[in-house]
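Reply to dn_fold:

You asked what the input looked like. This is it:
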Amino acid sequence: MSAAGLLLAGCGGGDAGAGTVPGRTEPTPAASQPAVTAAQPGVATRKPDQIVDIRPPQEGRPSLFLVGDSLGVGMARDLQADLPGWTVSVDVRNGLVAGIGMPLWRAQQTPYTVSAFSLFTNDDPANLAGLEQVVRESVERVFSQCAIWATIRAPPRNGVTFDAANALLHRLAGEYPGRLFIVPWAETVTARSELDLGDYVHATDEGYAVRARLFAEAARRCVRQAA
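and this is what came back:
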């Protein structure tokens, strides 16, 4: 069975946004946009529904491709800023589930140094087989030097927490030393509750900046270990 077949469509999968023009950010319709709030700790400014910004890798400089959900949308521009000298491409869309996000990654024809994933927050935490399959694929496919995933912080679904999913991510990292890096997002927000927007999923502006820095640090570790 394909990875998409194994993965269950979680909540919010309907707004993935097909037909986006690469390299262009699609704005949220004006009627549904909340009022803009000044960026400061404890709040989150308005984010677009998706950011698709594909930049072909350039010879002689490291590159990263990020695919992800609303948490990816929230950190995308910070991540690009945190990796000067890198070519950072993003395809991030609100509500994205892994069964839709992975094909976006597979569709990339040019290898990137690092593949980064902000996925599975919208998926069924009981679908550990689906999570394991796509994480292994992200490492074993001859496309990047390494893959980055993040532990998941989201409310339980049907009484199932993401604890087992996060434990699986850490276990898989042990099987792929130097090739799979796990960003400790759930652990970080648990220790710093001010980074959470209040819904146990999304982050404040400061939280997204922290998430981006964690992904950037993992990307740099990948390059250093491969050198």
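The mean pLDDT is 85.
Hope that clears it up.
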